[in-house]
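user: Here is a favour to ask of a fellow structure person. I have my own habits and do not want them to colour yours. Could you put it straight underneath, so I can go through it closely?

assistant:
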Amino acid sequence: MRYIAAANPPGAPMTGSFAGAFRAFLTAFLLLGSLIGMPGAAAAAEAPNWRSLEKIYRQLHSSPELSNVENQTAKFMAEHFRKLGFTVTEGIGGTGVVGVLRNGSGPTLMLRADMDALPVLEETGAKFASKVRMKNSAGVEQPVMHACGHDIHMTSLIGTLQRLVSIKDSWSGTLIAIAQPAEEVGQGARNMLADGLFTKFPRPDYNLALHVSSALPSDSIAYTPGYALANVDSVDIIVHGVGGHGAYPNTTKDPVVLASSIVGSLQTIVSRELSPLTPAVVTVGAFHAGHKHNVISNRAHLQLTVRSYSQETRQQIFSAIRRIVRGQGMAAGLPEDLLPEVKVQDEYTPSAFNNPELAERLAGVWRDKMGAAKTVKVDPVMGGEDFGRYGQVEPKIPSVIFWLGGVSRKTFEKAMQTQTPLPSLHSSTFLPDYKTSLRTGVEATTAAALELLGDE
């Protein structure tokens, strides 16, 4: 290249045989670049328009919608799927969107992004911060914020689809893109499946999703083979009593005392009934009882979150809760018709199990693409994600959900050095390092898709 530059200085016209030779060399150079990954016209054509993607992210971030009422977000995603040539169906499982792109024979890969935001008042100070207030599905007006990174998930999906569509000659198979509602309330995946996601549309051979992490650098990803996220159950315990005057407790059956005893006893389930090697959580998040200093109420209400991985552990915990609650009520002298009630709510999120072989296979791809230092194997967490439902439908579909870093590396390293806590997911101050996160998310998901599509 130095020789050509010397023989033909910048700005000088190329003429005659030299021009022809240069054009031939340039064509060969660009072709070689496309084959071995060198920068060139072909490689540039494969890259998404990052500025456009960043604009999409800011638009989604500033206009969040709550669970089950993601109407405008769904239309936005459907429009982008159509622009890329997908056959699009809206209204699956509520506001869910399904896009199908057939590109020859080969496997079927489903890529999923969730759409709903949270009832959180944003305090990030970003110029594009959400100022949205809207009514939820129950008609209650609330502030709304994308505090869990679903805006990153959607934008990364759009960028990945752009990349895959631009290099269709590099893969073969069927691509299913879904924009899912109501992840935050554990209903979206269930509702889309019930509405025929795997019967009206091609059944996937693989399911793939990502989730932003508030504890990883934005130029990195993390994965977990096996159980990655937990079963999440909401449990209500209604403790009945016999109310009366606070000055004469002997004439009552105090539900506050009974409920307090139940709270303490519930903590023995994990510590004394499960194996120390079996992860689980039983947390009493709310305790409601009474209205006045000197009145013993007739009722107390406990609200629990219960976390586990396996169905066996989940059912064991439920059985223990019911036994403890009933036993404590009997010990307090309550008659049969006043014994406490245990209600397991329908708002259930199953554990997310990453197929171990698939997870390690993709991890190898990511290490090659992004580097071993930026592809981290991490322990499972007790958070919940209803993506797990897609892999539980029989016969089970190999599925992987991986973590996408959301914190700038500079901020992350400073926090590690100073032991400063970073804003967590669901925090009013959580704002991803979106420019880098989007690039990392698109790169990682595209690499995984190219590994799987065309795999006979």
User: Anything to note?
Assistant: The chain has a mean pLDDT of 90. The radius of gyration is 27 Å. The CA atoms of residues 57 and 152 lie 7 Å apart. Residues 16-36 form the longest helix (21 residues).
